[in-house]
Each structure stands twice: as C-alpha cells, then as structure tokens.
Design goal:
Layout lengths: L9 H29 L29 H9 L4 H11 L12 H11 L6 H4 L1 H32 L2 H12 L4 H4 L5 H16 L3 H14 L7 H17 L3 H33 L19 H10 L12 H24 L1 H5 L27 H15 L32 H16 L6 H4 L4 H12 L4 H23 L6
Helix pairs in contact: 1-6, 1-7, 1-20, 2-6, 3-4, 3-6, 4-6, 6-7, 6-9, 7-19, 9-10, 10-12, 11-12, 14-17, 19-20
Organism: Trema orientale
Keywords: Endoplasmic reticulum, Glycosyltransferase, GPI-anchor biosynthesis, Membrane, Transferase, Transmembrane, Transmembrane helix
EC number: 2.4.1.-
Length: 497
Amino acid sequence: MTRTKTSPKPQNHETLVLKSALLSRLLLLALILLWRTLLSPYDTSATLNPNCLSNTTSPSPKEQLIWPSMASAIESSIVWDGVYFVRIAQCGYEYEQTYAFMPLLPICISFLSRTVFAPLVPVIGQRAVLGLSGYVINNIAFVFAAVYLYRLSVTVLKDRDAALRASLLFCFNPASIFYSSIYSESLYALFSIGGLYHLVSGKNNIAVPWLALSGFARSNGVINAGYICFQTMHQAYNAILRKSAFLTLQVLAGGALRCIFIFAPFLAFQAYGYYNICLGHSPDKMRPWCKARVPLLYNYIQSHYWGVGFLRYFQLKQLPNFLLASPILSLAICSLVHYAKSEPEKFFSLGFRASTKEKNFAPVFFIPGTVLRANITQTIGKASEKIQEKGNLRPKKQLTKEEAPALLSESSDKIGYLSVFVLPFILHLGVLAATAFFVMHVQVATRFLSSSPPLYWFASYLIRSPVYRRWGYLIWAYSASYILLGSLLFSNFYPFT
C-alpha cells in the first residue's frame, strides 16, 4: 500500500517566511545604499534640524561627534514623513499639523533611543540615534508582521501552500520601501495583522489591544473595529435564532465595549490635541476646529493642510498620481469583483447564507474553533497519524459532531481565497480601497492598502490558477518594479506615493 505524500511541516514554511522577510529587508537596504551612492538627493534639507521650541532636548551645536560621517549619512536618509516622526520623537508635538502623525512610532523611537541606543549619542548624535531607532523598529516589526500574516493565512485559508505564497508576496510587496523607512506602516501591519490572527484564533482579550494599538500607529487602524462589528453581528444573529434575549444583549454589549476599546487610543490622542491647542485660549484666538460641535483635530488637519476630502483630488493635474496608484487599486477591485462573482450568495448576504443548502444557517466568525477546526475530520485525522507514529500513546476520544464547537464543515466546502472566512477581510479591503480612491491623496493607496491580507490571498490564488497564472507573473513584475522605483526615488527625496 502506497503512503500518501505528506506536505512540508508548517514550521518549515514559517521559517522560510522569516528568512524571506529578513532577505527582503537586506535587499531594500542594499538598494537604498546603491541609489544613494549613484545619485544625489533631490532635496538636501533633510539634515536641517532647528532647536526644539522647548530647548530642552536639542543637542548642543558645538557637540563633537566621534563618527560624523555616519551621523550625516543617517540624518540625510530621514526623508518625507520620517522628518516629522523623528522631530516628534525628539521635541514632541510642537505644531498643529504634526498631530496628523499618530504617536505610537515616535514613542517607540524615543524609548529605544533613550535606552538601548543611548550609548551611541556621543558617537553619531541624538538625531541620528533617533533615526537609527526608527529604522530598527520598523524593520523588526515588518519581519514579525510577515510571520503573523503567514499564521493568519494558514488559519483563514486552511491551505499552507497558499499561505506561503501570500506571505512571500507580502515580503516583496510594492510598498516595501516604506516598511524599511521611518514610516508607521510596519507597526500598523504588525498590530493589525497580529490582532486579526489572535481574533480568528478566538483570543479576543489579546486581539482587541493589538487592534487598538494599530489605531495608535495609523488613524485607519480604527477601521479594524469593523471586524468586531462583523463578529458581533453574526453572534447576535445566532443568539436571536436561539431565541435568547439575554445572550443577544450580552453579545451586543460585549461587541460595543470592544469597539470602544479599539477607538480609545485615537480618541485619546484627539483629546490630547484639544488640550494642548484649544484650552486656555479666548474664543477669538481659538483655532476654527476648536469651536466646532465635534472638535476633531485629525479631520481638520487633513483637510486644511493636505487638502484631503471627498473627490477633492479629482483634478486633471493629478492624473499621473492616479496612474501610479492604478495597479494596487486594480488588484483590490479585481479581488472584490472576483469574490463577489464566484460566491455571490456569501458576498451579498454578508455571510449569513454561506450555503445554498442551508438557507437559515449563519456562520459564526472569529469564535474559538470556528476557523482552526472548521474541518473536524481533517484535524482528527492528523492527530491520529501523530498518535500512530509515536506508538506509546493511547488514542484519544474522538469528538462527536455534538461535542465539536460551532463549525462550518457542511457549508464551507471551499478552502483558500473563496472560503467564507475570507469575506470580512474582503469587505474591509473594499472600505479601504473606496477611501483611498475617493477621499485620500490617491498615490498613497500603494502603501495604504499594502497591509491588507486579501490582496496577497487573491494574488496567491491567481498564481496557482492555471487560468490566471499569467496575471500572477504580472503581479510579481509589478512588485519588483515598484521596489526598484521606490528605493530609487524615495531614498533620494523624490516624490513616490
């Protein structure tokens, strides 16, 4: 009797993802050094660093550094938004427009520069140490984010090979330059993807703080509360089907509290800005947003300083930026459309009718066992194989259908990208894509959407499919070209997304 060929151990896949993430960061570093050596920066103002308004943390102008050339190289590499993050870490929030940058990354930079890297201040100077701290934090965070994406993909897709392909695509994604720079993308990806992994694993007590921290890294992290809303909606519906009013109220109250917790860091930061800018001023000297019925600082800054708003970017002169963002937006739209066309009942019923056979069946998302053990037969089979291999253990009692947790074994007959478990991620991607296209500076879409898991799941699906395989190769070419272009333009202070 021939033995079935076993798939590689998951630890091997995870190790490969870890190595690929490290390799991708080294590749980005090599490219940045190459382009900085061959080309001169478009803007040389990156090294300018006036004293802090408080004059309490700025280094003395006469400070003699042991390694000034290294200090100059690091400081000149701090470009674009990195200038704001480093300045905030050094001096705090000095100006109104700086409140557009969420505080998690500056807090981490400041902490690392004052502890682990504090001995390097006499060597390369305080600002260079702050920059170095930012680079170390973001590159490490990216590596962990890649590992968490693999774990999340295995859990949701139930296909280790597809999870591996998706994770490798993330390691070399088109917005890679931002994950190796002093931007908030890496921390956001880590806490967003990590939080989702804990959520689908049923660890709500861990998932909610992680998702809250994603909102402390980037403002769009608060949209992750949508996953909690989706979970609560399905749990409440199942409680209604059981005709349990108490359970329904309990589910709704718990979901509301978790959403509030996710919003809390963002709202606390808005209150902090209101306290610093608005309080203590007479009404005639207050900023306009201070007197609004809902004084939301973030919306005012985005609109007033950056011109962000619904359809405000729809101008003929912005056509090149729309073209720059068109690949990532096209991939996002295609992933939504393909899922909706392939699984219309799942998509348009929001997952309440995941099976044509069970019209009243509502799948329960993000509950312990729902995803990890959706195929109970497969799980038990693997456990039995391990027992037989060891030989010295007695077979454990198999779970019956009644003893098993709420499963989708009958209705979720598909694994991979078209699984019903992918639906909430698809809906979340749709919200992000619509926001990027209609509201934001559209060129930001490349990095704004780059941490969305279903993009990589869909790309992995295309690569594997014999019908769409050529599109998979095109996606790899797109990622490679944007890595090269981004490392060339961004590192030399030229505009790029």
